[in-house]
What does this fold into?
Amino acid sequence: MTTEESSRTSGRRVPTPVDSLDGLLRSAFGHEAFRPLQAEVCRAVTQGRDVLLVMPTGAGKSLCYQLPGLARAGTTLVISPLIALMEDQVSALQDHGIAAERIHSGRDQLASRAVCRDYLDGNLDFLFIAPERLAVPGFPEMLAKRPPVLIAVDEAHCISHWGHDFRPDYRMLSERLPMLRPAPVIALTATATPLVQRDIVEQLAIPEAKLFIHGFRRTNIAVEVVEAKPSARGAVVRRVLEDAGRRPAIVYSPTRKETEALAAELNGTFPAAAYHAGMTSTARDRAQRAFQDGGVEVIVATIAFGMGIDKPDIRTVIHTGMPGTLEGYYQEIGRAGRDGDPARAILLYSWADRRTHEFFLGRDYPEPSVLAKVYGALSERARPAEELCAELGLDDEVFTTALEKLWIHRGALVDPEENATRGRPDWRVPYEAQLAHRQEQIERMTAFASGRGCRMLHLVRHFGDQHDSGEACETCDQCAPNKCLVNSFRKPEGTEIEVLAAALDLLRERDGLTSGQLHRQTAEGDELERKTFELLLDGLVRDGLVEVLADSFEKGGRTIQFQRVWLTRRGRLAGRNDVDGVLVVKEVAAPPRKRRARAKKAATPVAKHQVPLDIAESALFEKLREWRLEEARRRRIPAFRILGDRTLAAICRARPVDEEELLDVAGIGPAKASSFGRKILAVVAAESNNDDRPK
Ligand code: ADP
Ligand code: MG
It folds into this structure.
């Protein structure tokens, strides 16, 4: 927008009183009425309060800074993490005749300079910038010459390590925002647990911020959690989606290979496509567009899929494995039923899924004692990492991961050549906190999957929704077992009835026993396994006869979680015929094994034992290491931050010739491919030309 155009809008720069915000909502944005919570938030921000707003995607958060920004009559500074997001918001505002501009790395200097001038002349209602802009020398000082009337931090969870999308650039905000104050700050995000909320408030130094957290209950999504062995899951997906009324659908699978295998398998029945970070960006765009347009009805994807997807009529979201975090899970199922019509979310999981997550956690976060060992070997004198590794007798991968973690938490200084010196001694606290946090995320996800009681209520409480009714949803597998799509139920039989009746009797004598105690005292002699006993107990919960509540105790500095069983009022009065009617979930059967050898086994979490590189591969490996060192020097970071040895070795084995093949290599995703892809391919090509092996 030119200066001339924007001066036109500056004519109305008189603050709007808070009781006239309704009028501004209509005149500036053309909306008839506020959505839930918007009016309250707009009033608080217009009056100059700091605010943290947590509402799900699509709830209308942007309006909560845009309207107050206009009402406060000056320039609002908006921090936003993605160029595409910025461009969308700016053009939407401009369409309403509002003077909005943006400065980001995708624009040329001339344009940016013109925007700065407009900003300083007071011609802008909104200026959008990326957080890294605040690191540009002189830029925050320029802004400070004419401080904004409001600062909006969008996608504010990016500031927290605990969030699932941490961006180091956001950390800059805590340093630079003070010079732009006293404007009020509004932080907005769709995904923040109470822990992340506290972190945002602390990082942005807005301790007095008013918290608004709302809208996490989705009344049209029926959540169903199904315990099923991995081998049974594909058949379940097919059976559910065979019904056209349950499509379009997103199926989230844990690995790239699985998305491809399942998409191929489903494709015979209805149009399905895979989507994962190992595909080229063209292939990903094509798949996403086909899904958006309806040509593809089922997209089988890793969690790489979803940002920016805007499809209102998704009827089903299925997870064929347990997600790593409950926040991620909620975001993913939240893509269903945006049009408000009934939709379903089905989670297929088993205990093995938890072990997989724990395996990866153990690989990516070594025990603090391992870090301590590495730290102990460091000194003032810089020493090659390789030498240290040999001296400590640690496995290469374990050593490199430990050194990297130390480097991140400043316990080690590492130069591009990977010479290490001792860093700060206080690395342990933040590292242990991070490790504990990851463990807790897995714990919470498992507790949700294996939990009893209303699923939606569980999710709503997880986010700390302040205005929720607290009522059960009446549609999930726990609230409405007879509406389940995948789970089926049976009546208890024979001994099981005796055991249930005995358990209720026992609780009447002593309420609040643990499920283990109950099992021991009622079922053990009858050879009823603990697992079956738990299923029976689930039935009692579902029927509203007992409640199971989490409890914990401390032992040797660790918190041990367990569950106590309490009678409800109904349970206290229940007779034997109530027990007969309890619904016990049936195991989901796996389809009979096909005779033909199965196609490649899905990736197992256990690292394959790698054969050593042959001579030609080793030569390439050395060339790649040279390139990596150069790159590391340029960026002044340790070489292992560019790519790990394991990934380099995988490239040597695969010898990719184009982006597509490169993306197939484990450890290479779109970010690495776009930063280094061309150079890696060039190194591989050059070395392959020297290599006279038959190809
Ligand atoms: P969020 O940032 O919470 O994901 P947006 O701010 O992008 O959501 O808003 C989602 C959509 O809702 C936008 O198209 C926006 O124009 C629309 N919207 C927001 N508030 C209202 C309202 N009060 N009335 C009608 N539409 C609204
Ligand atoms: Mg938004």
User: Anything to note?
Assistant: The pocket of adenosine-5'-diphosphate (ligand 1) is lined by residues 31, 34-35, 38, 55, 57-63 (CB under 6 Å). The domain at 221-356+469-480 is CATH 3.40.50.300 (Rossmann fold). The radius of gyration is 28 Å. The chain has four domains: 3-213, 221-356+469-480, 489-585, 615-692.
